[in-house]
């Protein structure tokens, strides 16, 4: 799930995405519902293909060679292009979708207008920056992460306005989420100590060691001492949280 701004970096950090970034059915369900009766779908910033429907005609758009190489056998055809300049005709697809990709685009507003141009229906999974960056990992251990993408993030309200969305839905993150994005391990903090897990979280993988390792040492110490568990004991009682994920849907132009 990448695009223009991080094409080169995803050729470097995208290794292993197909193992850790697997579609979670509880997140996939509202995406599938939002696609409605669309028979043809373009998936922009498609990455390794998570959340692509298998029962429709799909074209994937992905600029990173590394990410595209991890698409499974039988996956939809994939072309190299950026969201800001899609080589597709106006309204050539019943639906255009993008999953956790907008914040990687060099020009998110331009990319969103391109999606609105080529797809009659628009389905986007994105996040509300203010909620996302309030997460304990960033606030307490890796504050540097927010600065990497802040210039490319758009508030959900702005995303909805640009594409002319009909609705915005909150998508909860389950405690055992199988899609290893940044907040997926909110109740499994020990997972962030695993280098393979961090490699598949762009907010961590793109940081230098000096920006990450001191925080990870503190996290390990806090887990060993039990202070993390005490500080976040309310999280351990929850099955799902609102981590800022939002499904933004335009039914028709």
Please characterize this protein's 3D structure:
The structure is a single chain. The chain is an alpha/beta fold and 253 residues long. The protein has one domain: Rossmann fold. The protein has 13 helices and nine strands. Strands 3-2-1-4-5-9-6 form a seven-stranded mixed sheet, sandwiched between helices. It is globular. The relative contact order is 0.17.
Task: Outline the fold blueprint.
Layout: H1 7-13, H2 17-20, H3 25-35, E1 40-44, E2 57-61, H4 65-69, E3 78-79, E4 93-99, H5 108-118, E5 119-127, H6 129-132, H7 136-141, H8 146-149, H9 156-163, E6 167-170, E7 173-174, H10 195-199, H11 202-205, H12 209-225, H13 227-231, E8 240-241, E9 245-250
Parallel strand pairs: 1-2, 1-4, 2-3, 4-5
Antiparallel strand pairs: 5-9, 6-9, 7-8
Cα shape:
globular
The number of helices is 13
Got a strand count?
Answer: 9
% residues in beta strands:
15-25%
Proportion of residues in helical segments: 25-40%
Order of helices and strands: HHHEEHEEHEHHHHEEHHHHEE
Domains, number:
1
Q: How far is the N terminus from the C terminus?
A: 25 Å
What is the topology, as strand order, of the major beta sheet? 3-2-1-4-5-9-6
Tell me the structural class: alpha/beta
For the record, the CATH architecture stands as 3-Layer(aba) Sandwich
CATH superfamily: Vaccinia Virus protein VP39
Short description, anyone?
This protein has a single domain, classed as Rossmann fold, CATH 3.40.50.150.
Primary descriptors:
253 residues; two-stranded antiparallel ribbon; 17% strand; 13 helices; seven-stranded mixed β-sheet; alpha/beta; Rossmann fold; disordered N terminus
């Amino acid at each position: 799930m990448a695009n223009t701004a991080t094409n080169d970096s995803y050729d470097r950090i995208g290794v292993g995405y197909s193992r850790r970034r697997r579609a979670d059915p509880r997140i996939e369900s509202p995406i599938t519902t939002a696609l409605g009766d669309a028979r043809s779908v373009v998936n922009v910033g498609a990455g390794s293909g998570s959340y692509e429907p298998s029962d429709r005609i799909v074209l994937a758009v992905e600029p990173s060679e590394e990410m595209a190489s991890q698409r499974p056998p039988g996956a939809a055809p994939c072309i190299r292009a950026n969201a800001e300049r899609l080589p597709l005709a106006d309204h050539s697809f019943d639906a255009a979708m993008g999953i956790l990709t907008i914040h990687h685009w060099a020009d998110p507003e331009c990319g969103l207008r391109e999606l609105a141009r080529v797809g009659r229906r628009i389905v986007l999974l994105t996040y509300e920056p203010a909620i996302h960056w309030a997460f304990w990992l960033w606030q307490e251990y890796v504050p540097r992460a927010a600065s990497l993408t802040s210039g490319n993030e758009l508030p959900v309200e702005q995303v909805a306005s640009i594409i002319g969305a009909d609705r915005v839905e909150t998508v909860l993150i389950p405690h055992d989420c199988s899609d290893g994005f940044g907040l997926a391990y909110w109740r499994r903090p020990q997972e962030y100590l695993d280098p393979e897990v961090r490699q598949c979280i762009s907010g961590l993988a793109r940081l230098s060691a000096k920006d990450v390792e001191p925080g990870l040492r503190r996290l390990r110490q806090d887990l060993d001492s039990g202070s993390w568990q005490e500080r976040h004991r309310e999280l351990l009682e929850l099955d799902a949280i609102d981590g800022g994920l939002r499904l933004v849907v335009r039914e028709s132009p």
